[in-house]
Amino acid sequence: MTGAGRGELEGTVRVSEIPAKATEQDGPSGDAQTQRPSGAPTTGEPTGNTPGRAPEEVPGGEAPGDAPGESPGDAPGEAPGDVPGQGRAVHETWHSSPPGSIYDYIKVASFSIGPDGLVDQWSARAERLFGVVARDAVGKDPIEAFVPAELRAGGYRKMAEILDGREWTGVVPFRVPEGERAGESGLEGVAEVYVMPTRTEDGERAAVCIVVDVRALRQIETDLAASQAIFGQSPFGFLLFGTDLRVQRANRRFADVFGGDAVDHRGRTVHDYLPRHEADRMAAAMKRVLQTGDSVTDMQIVGPAPGSNDRRHWSINLYRVHSGSGRPIGVAGLGTDVTRRHAAAREAAHARRNLALLNEAGARIGNSLDLETTARELLDVAVPGFCDLASVDLYQGLLAGDETPPGLADGSAELRRVAFASAVADAPFPEGGAPVEVGAVHRFPFTSPCADALRAARPRLTTAQDDGSASRLTGGLIQSTLAVPMVAHDTVVGLAQFSRTKGSEPFGERDRALAVELAARAAVCIDNARLYRREHERALILQRSLLPPGDPEASGLDIACRYLPGNAANEVGGDWFDVIELPGHRTALVVGDVMGRGLRAAVAMGELRTAVRTLALLDLEPAEVLAALDEIARGLGNPAGPQQNTRAARKTADADLSEVYLATCVYAVYDAVTRRCTFANAGHLPPALVEPGDSGQPALMLDVPPGLPLGVGGEPFEDVEVELPEGALLALYTDGLVESRDHPLDEGLNAFVRALGDAPAALEDVCDHVLNTLDTHHGEDDIALLMARVEGLPAEHVGDWTLPRDPKSVGRARELACAKLRAWDLEPLCDTAELLVSELVTNALRYGEGEIRLRLLLDRTLVCEVWDGGFVQPRRRRARDTDEGGRGLQLVGLLSAAWGSRRTPRGKTVWFELPLPDGETEPMDAAEALLSLF
């Protein structure tokens, strides 16, 4: 016994003046009460239970109060509409206490005390409360059995007062007697006892005791306070649904959100608060929770708030609620407004999407230097990740190379649509008029939002309401369009349009900023591609201007050539070829490749080609030409020029400023009279030769020492002379024809020689066949191809004589020349040829050495050559009026179409050329030409 209990037992704690009601229904404690015998007093009396017998219970454990609609909180035996404390009509069916009532939680028990002060009845509830069965309790002194020894004196005084007929209510400490409850000997507790005096059938005084476990009652009070706090103070909405899924109770927070008082929501369903589809989803979830007992966590529900069309987001948690006996009595729902969290998550998702789009744009846009490809890359990023439709329009003038096309400032200049993309079955992009096809040139109306965006260089957002014509054009498909000018280096180069269809989220400020960023990145790449295209076209124009115009012609050769520049995505290379006519019906064939790309490579190629033509006119041997070219190439990148490009000079600091130019080149000289060709190679691919009659056989690679590329220096070049059979096919080419990223050089050379062996007869068809057969991957590099079929000068078109060193040889030379011209039916040229031949032979006799050789060659022109063993080259000078001689070479230059001299291995050759008569122009009279010199 505690000290607190001791004081309570010493006096009456409180006295109840309320008489006990006579009732025949089961009490809250579950104790069975028998009918009171006729004549029994109306005050509460115990209805004797047989000692050791448990009280009767209502079969089934349920009462009509369990019917749907009856709250678990209703008092036992009262319908939901009854007022507590009022009696029911006699005709109503008596109700038993249903499971789940308050009595499942409060430990209430009863027992009775006989006139002798001993326990004469002990209920089943008392057995569970005290842990003592009826057979062990009946017949015992309750004071002796349950009250601690130090409090028994006060207990006996109270017992005497009770048996004297006084009611008493108080809090009494108790303990379980030793050995009365297995494993719980000495169990202590505190009970609130209500003692009501009674009388037995014999009129003796007795008492009925109602006992309540104070500890369980205090726990219920604590739980009730917590429950009230949840319902009244919780910042979250709380609902308690019954088994019929109707609201049984709502807290104040829920009522504040959905309006009204908390009691106003009683009896409602989720369909009264949510849209149909969301209400059905939540009702189904509550049914599953009620049936299975599995809770639902963070169920997302979307619906409008009362009195507003704003979409709200709630996070719902559902769990099943049980009674004290474990029977499901409903579903509890806890709702939290997570609209702000969803908005923040949506903003974060938008930010992540925008960053991902920008990252993708950086990786995909600008991978090529092609305008159309770059525009398509922008749309590939934007559709459908950012919008549903998009297009790119660029100023036509800028594409054509005009830096300031008219109308650029006010947005009225012509634009060309270069790209369009759609995620909605290629719907036309609206501009307020007819759809614009890709590649079409058009203008935006001056008052249109697109023109305004171009003028102000600022994005413009238009909706379907703002642009009714565009909405009608697409059947109301598009809800909003962003027109974003593409600005690069403070210059507007075009316009990008992004559109979203109905059903997509409208454009916001973040979308506007993202569209501007995407357009700016693409604009810079497009402007770079435009500038590169301009430089590429300029370099290509320069390169083409340096190549032979039209179809080259050569004596004794049938020429066909092809030049294919790289595409716009690659810079112009330095490939070139040339066909140079030399004296004596000889022809120089040149193919070269400057290492590097761009305008500088094209300029270097032009310089080398000019140098080759200049050196060729000097009639040098091929090896000598390449040696001179090597010196020139080494001087191209030296600021001081080639004359300072010595080994000593390269050691100075100025040499660090020089740029190295390297080139490969094949130089060949073909003589149509002898059909012999002399080759020299500077690091280039070897020439290929197809001999006549070898149809189907692979071509031969001529064994020409490759040498070092031009610009390296330090090593001499070698000449290789090859006799070409009549009808043979000679091919010179650059590496772009036989080498690519996907095919190594050896594989390309093998394919090239096979293609030449299978080539058709016509020379032009041979070029086409080679290009079509080889996997050239055209566009990666320039391709130069020069084909020549050998057609030697016929023997009847050659007159060749050897003359002794005798003055009579001059007359003999005139006779031979005139006779040959008459045989060729060129008698109109006899006088001129006779005069010029005599001059050259006379000079050979006077200034030359060794025997004299006279040769006449007839092809497209008439060429006369005079050979001798002297190495001194004739020099033309202007004779004074008083000079008797010195006018021979002047006369040759006046009467001939061209003349010159060249060195040979055994001396020199002086030659002149006369055009063949065409019947329209008369040759100059020799006498008049001679007189004009004086």
Oligomer: single chain
Spatial gap, N to C terminus = 164 Å
Name the shape in a single word: rod-shaped
Strand content: 15-25%
Unreliable spans: 1-95, 179-185, 643-658
Structural class: alpha+beta
Q: Give the number of helices.
A: 22
What does this structure look like?
The protein is an alpha+beta fold and 934 residues long. Helices cover 30% and strands 24% of the residues. It contains 22 helices and 31 strands. β30 (898-904) and β31 form a beta hairpin. α20 (830-847) packs antiparallel against α21. 37% of the residues are buried. Residues 1-95, 179-185 and 643-658 have low confidence and may be disordered.
Question: What key attributes describe this structure?
Answer:
disordered N terminus; 934 residues; 30% helix; 31 strands; alpha+beta; single chain; six-stranded antiparallel beta sheet; 24% strand; five-stranded antiparallel beta sheet
Write the layout of secondary structure elements.
Layout: H1 3-10, E1 108-113, E2 119-122, H2 124-130, H3 134-137, H4 142-146, H5 152-163, E3 168-175, E4 188-199, E5 205-213, H6 214-233, E6 237-241, E7 247-250, H7 252-258, H8 276-292, E8 296-304, E9 311-322, E10 328-337, H9 339-364, H10 371-382, E11 389-395, H11 396-399, E12 415-422, E13 441-442, H12 449-456, E14 460-463, H13 468-473, E15 478-488, E16 491-501, H14 509-546, E17 557-564, E18 573-582, E19 586-597, H15 599-617, H16 622-636, E20 663-671, E21 676-682, E22 688-690, E23 700-701, E24 720-723, E25 729-733, H17 745-757, H18 763-773, E26 783-790, E27 798-803, H19 808-823, H20 830-847, E28 852-858, E29 861-868, H21 888-895, E30 898-904, E31 907-915, H22 926-932
Antiparallel strand pairs: 1-2, 1-5, 3-4, 4-5, 6-7, 6-10, 8-9, 9-10, 11-12, 11-16, 12-13, 14-15, 15-16, 17-26, 18-19, 19-20, 20-21, 21-24, 22-23, 22-25, 25-26, 27-28, 28-29, 29-31, 30-31
Helix pairs in contact: 9-10, 9-14, 10-14, 14-15, 15-16, 17-18, 19-20, 20-21
